[in-house]
Amino acid sequence: xxxxxxxxxxxxxxxxxxxxxxxxxxxxxxxxxxxxxxxxxxxxxxxxxxxxxxxxxxxxxxxxx
Length: 65
Fold this sequence. Notes:
Structural class: mainly beta
Strand content: 35-45%
Strand order of the largest sheet: 1-2-3-4
Number of strands: 4
Distance between the termini: 11 Å
InterPro entries: DUF2196
Helix content: under 10%
Protein name: YwbE family protein
CATH topology: SH3 type barrels
Shape: globular
Low-confidence stretches: none
Pfam family, one: DUF2196
Radius of gyration: 10 Å
Number of helices: 0
CATH class: Mainly Beta
């Protein structure tokens, strides 16, 4: 699913995000969404979220529950 649409993302979903320090390499980090930090309905680089382990990044891929 598209990580650029806020409506696709809910707390508890498993996602791949790109952390700020990994934006150049595109390295993905997998985790479970705790908080959605982007207020707008969409973002071209992905919706910013906080994972349950505290890491913050932009969603690139959403795994179906």
